[in-house]
Specification:
single chain, alpha/beta, 8-stranded mixed sheet, globular
Length: 279
Amino acid sequence: MTARELAGRTVVVTGATSGIGRAAAVGFARRGAHVVAVGRDPARLRSVVSELTEVGRVRAYGLGADFARLDDVRAAGEDLRGRYEHIDVLASNAGGMFRTRTLTADGFESTIQVNHLSGFLLAHLLRDRLAGGRLIVTSSDAYTTGRLDPDDLNAEQARYGAGRAYGASKQAGILFAAEAARRWPDVLAVSFHPGEVRTLIGRGTIASWYFRFNPLLRTPDRAADTLLWLATAPADGIAPGGYYMDRRPHPVKGPTAGADLAARLWDASAAAISERESL
C-alpha cells in the first residue's frame, strides 16, 4: 500500500488528539485517507477532526472513547463495525503514564489497561474488518525497563513505579504485535519505537517535565514518521510481527523476544477481558 494507494482508505488512530497520534492522523489525512480519530477529550477531539477535515480530502470522523473504560472500547468497536465493512489500518497508539497505582472501573491497573488491554480488545472487536489490513502498535524502547508477568497483569506482586509499569505496558505492545502476526496471518501486525518525543504523556509525574520541555526530544511529526511508513510501505518489505525504529527493523532484547511470553500474554489478556467477549 503506497502513500498514493492510501487515498480513500479507512484508517483508525487511537490516542489521536495529541502527540504522535495527532501527528499521524494529520499525515494520513494529507495522504487522502478517511481518518477515524479516537480520543477521550471531547474538545480536543473536535479540534483534531476540524484540522483533519481541513487538510484532508474527505471529512474525518471523531469517535469518543476513554480507554480506562472497557465499555467505552466496546461501544467504539460496535460503532466502527456499524460504519465500516473494512478497516485498512488500525494504529493502536493510545497510552498514558500514571503517577500512582490506580485501578480502573474494570478492576485493572490503569497503565496496562489503557496502554494494552483496551487496544487488544479493540483489535479483537475489529478482527474481521482488519482482514487484509494492518495493525500498527506504538511501543517504546522503555520496554527494557518493564518486567511483565502475564500471570500478574495488575502487578500486584511488585512494588509500583510509573516508569516500570509503563515499560511493562510497552513490552506488551511488542508482544501483542508479534503474536497477532502469528495468529492472524491475514493482518500485517507490527510495532514500533517512535524515539523520545515531546508529548503530554506522564502528566503528574516527574517524567512530564522531561517529555514536555526537553528541546533535544523529537517532535511528534518526526516520531510519527515510522508509523506512517509502516502503514504505506509495500507489505513485502515489512516483517510481520517486527519491531521498527526509523523505518528499520529494531532488535528486541531479553524476554520480550520470546514467542512463549507473547503467547502467554495473549492468553492472559484474552482471559482478562473475556467475561463478556468471545475472543
